[in-house]
Amino acid sequence: MSTKEIAGAVVNVDEEGFLTDPAQWTEAIAEAMAAELGLTLTEDHWKVVDFTRQDYQQTGEAPGLRRITKVGGVPTKQLYKLFPKGPAKKIARIAGLGKPTGCI
Amino acid sequence: MKKLLILGAGTAGTMVANKMHHMLDPDEWQITIVDQHETHYYQPGFLFIPFGIYGKNDVIKPKRNFIPAGVKMIVSEITMIEPEKNRVRVAKDNRYLGYDFLVIATGTHPRPAETPGMAAGEWHKSIFDFYTIEGATALARHLRGWQGGRLVLNIVDLPYKCPVAPLEFIFLADWFFQEKGLRDRIDLTLVTPLPGAFTKPRAAKLLGNILQDKNVNVVPDYYIERVDPEAKKIISYEEDEVPYDLLVTVPVNMGAEVIGKSGLGDEMNYVPVDKHNFLSKKFDNIFALGDAANLPTSKAGSVAHFAVEIFTENFLRYIDGLDMLQKFDGHANCYIESGFGKGILIDFNYDVEPLPGKFPLPGVGPFSLLQESEMNHWGKMMFRWMYWNLLLKGKELPIAAQMTMAGKWQ
What we know:
heterodimer, A: mainly alpha, B: alpha/beta, FAD/NAD(P)-binding domain, five-stranded parallel beta sheet
C-alpha cells in the first residue's frame, strides 16, 4: 500500500490511486480527485457522490450504476454525461470508495 | 411442531430440504418446500443445448424426485412474504404458510424486458438468450440453419448467473462453427461491461489470451442502453453502436419479484444477508441461500453447494441458541469448457483470485487449475451425474466447502 498527498492531506491509496480507507475522504479530496480526471464538480455531480457515500455507509458496498439510477434517482444516461468514459470507476474514485470490483 | 419453510426448489432449496430432513428430528420439525414449477433443470447443461451436445431431455427431471418423502412439497406461486407475521402467502388455495424459520432460495432470473428493444419482435428470432430452456432450444434451432455473419455476445450488466458461461459459449461457438466448416464466414465478438474477459487479473489474462488465439473480438467497458432490433445493432449509453446479425444476450439478472414486493430485497430483488452466514440483515429467523442472496461472489451452483454445507452446520447450532461458528468464505469452483474437448478449472473465494496449480480430488483428480486440459472437460461432463445423484440429494462430495490453498501456486 502506498500513500499520496492530495488536497493538503496524506491518504492511503492502491496502485491505481483509489483511496483504500473511505474514512480519510473529505470534500476537498473529492474535488482534487475530480480535477485529476479533468472534471469540475457541480451540484449534479455532488448529488451522485453524496448518494454513493451514503449508500456505502448503509450497505458496506459501493453501489453500481443500476443502483445509483434505481435508488439514487439519477438516470444512467446522465451519469455518462457527468462522468464520461467509465462512470462507475470515476464515481467510486471521487467518492473515495476504492476501485469497484464487479462481483465475479 | 416447529416449522421450517423453504421457498424455491432449485439447487440451493432442494439441497437444504435434503440436508435438513436428514439432520432435524421429524418428531419436532415439519419441513415444507414451495416452488411454482414441477420441473428441475440442470442449468449448467443449458450451455450445451445450442450446439446440439445436449437436448432438452438431458437437462430435465421432476423436482419431486429430489424431495424426500418426509418433506411436504407445495407446487404454487408464492404471492407474498410477511416477515413481521412469520408467514408466507401462496397462490394455491390462497393460503398462508406459517414458519419458525424461513429459507429463501428463489434464485435469479434473466429479465430481457429491462433493456429496451430486446424482448420485442425479434426475441428468439435474431436475439436469443441461453439461460432458459426456451432460449437455449430456440438458439439450437437457429444455429442449425445459420449460414454465418456477425455473432455478438453481449453481457448486459453484473451480476449475472454463472459468470464464466458467456466465455464458454464463445469457445464452444468457435469449435462448433469450425466443425461445420463455417468459421471463416463468422465474426465472433464479446461485448462486455467488464474491463476484459474476467474481473480477476490472472484468470482475465489467461482467458483473454484464449479469446485472442480463437480470433474473438472483445469490446470491453461497454454498458448497453438499448437494442435496435430492426437495424440489428446494440447501442450503449455513450451511443457506441455494435452491429450484429445474431445477438446472443445475457440479459439483466434479477431476483424473484416476490422478494421485491415483500420489502425483503435490494434494488435487484436480492436479499441482503451476512456474507459469512446468510442470515438476513433485517430478520433473525430468515436466511437466503444461493442466487437469491446478495453475496459478493459468483451466482453459481458451486457457490450454492458450499453455502448450503456451511448453513447446515450453522443452522443446527442456531436453533439451539448457539453461535454460528462456520464462516462462508465465498468459495466458488467452476469448470470452464474451452472447446475441442478441453476445459479449464478455476477455484477461488472472496479473497483469493483463481490461481494456477493442481486441484486435488480424491479418487479422480487432480485437475489442472487455470490451464486447459482434456481431464477438465471430462470433469465437467461427469458433473451432471454428480449433480443429479449426489449433490441435489445432499450427499457428501469429496470437496471441501471452504477453499483450500493445497496445490495452488502463489
